[in-house]
Amino acid sequence: MSTKTIAVLISGNGSNLQALIDQAGEQAYRVSGVVCNRPSAFGLQRAARAGIPSTIIEHGAFPDRAAFDAALLAAIERFQADFIVLAGFMRILGPAFIRARPGAILNIHPSLLPGYPGMHTHRRVLAAGDSEHGISVHFVNEELDGGPIIARSRIIVGEEDSEESLAGRVRRLEHHLYPKVVGWLAAGRLQLRGNAVFLDHVKLPATGMEHPAPAGA
Ligand code: GRF
């Protein structure tokens, strides 16, 4: 199996980066570099510990989004990354960036998209009294958390759940699913054609495939 390279873009803790690093051996990818827009992000230490090169590109240092995007793309080029994996990267990417790498940019989001794009998803799920919550992995397009959905995993929201407990439960789903989906992309099993997602040449429904939660999630 040939191994593809991924650049992981982070802004913070980097627990998904850690899961991607830890599970790379079971999948057809390796992390060739980490790009981060915040110098204090803990994820940078995770990269260093794993011997993975990283670069900091602070958005505030650029006059506009286009210049920031160009710097990001240049960094990704330097890491010779086949694919771009957003893992808690808190900046919206501009159209030039997205058009430069069609079908090669993934994001993970802590809600069952298309529900609850944007921030504070756990709080919003609790406020709405929803009985289910979950995560989505999707291709990135120009809409915030709006790109074609590849896979989702879900949990039942319990009476006793709080924002913190949901955050923990959702993170377990993320660490279980994201490395697998990145592995599918790296193995050539996943394609984006127009707005349609194909896994093993089979077109997925608009809400992606349902992936079971890990035991105890
Ligand atoms: C995750 O919940 C992810 O879904 C969202 O940002 C969070 C990143 O967490 N996009 P971490 O930095 O990977 O721990």
The radius of gyration is 17 Å
Helix % is 25-40%
CATH H-level superfamily title: Formyl transferase, N-terminal domain
Under the CATH scheme, which architecture would be assigned?
A: 3-Layer(aba) Sandwich
Number of helical segments?
A: 6
Distance between the termini: 31 Å
> How would you name the oligomeric state of the polypeptide chains in this document?
single chain
Mean pLDDT: 96
What's the number of extended β-strand segments?
11
What string gives the helices and strands in order? EHEHEHEHEHEEHEEEE
Describe the structure.
- The chain has about 220 residues and is α/β, with parallel strands linked by helices.
- The protein has one domain: Rossmann fold.
- It has six helices and eleven strands.
- The chain has helices spanning about 15-20, 45-50, 65-80, 95-100, 120-130, 165-185; strands at about 5-10, 30-35, 55, 85, 105-110, 130-140, 150-155, 190-195, 195-200, 200-205, 210.
- The strands form two sheets. Strands 3-2-1-4-5-6-7-11 form an eight-stranded mixed beta sheet, with helices on both faces. The chain has a three-stranded antiparallel beta sheet with strand order 8-9-10.
- Helix 1 (about 15-20) packs across helix 6.
- The chain binds 5-O-phosphono-beta-D-ribofuranosylamine.
- 5-O-phosphono-beta-D-ribofuranosylamine (GRF) binds near residues 13 and 110.
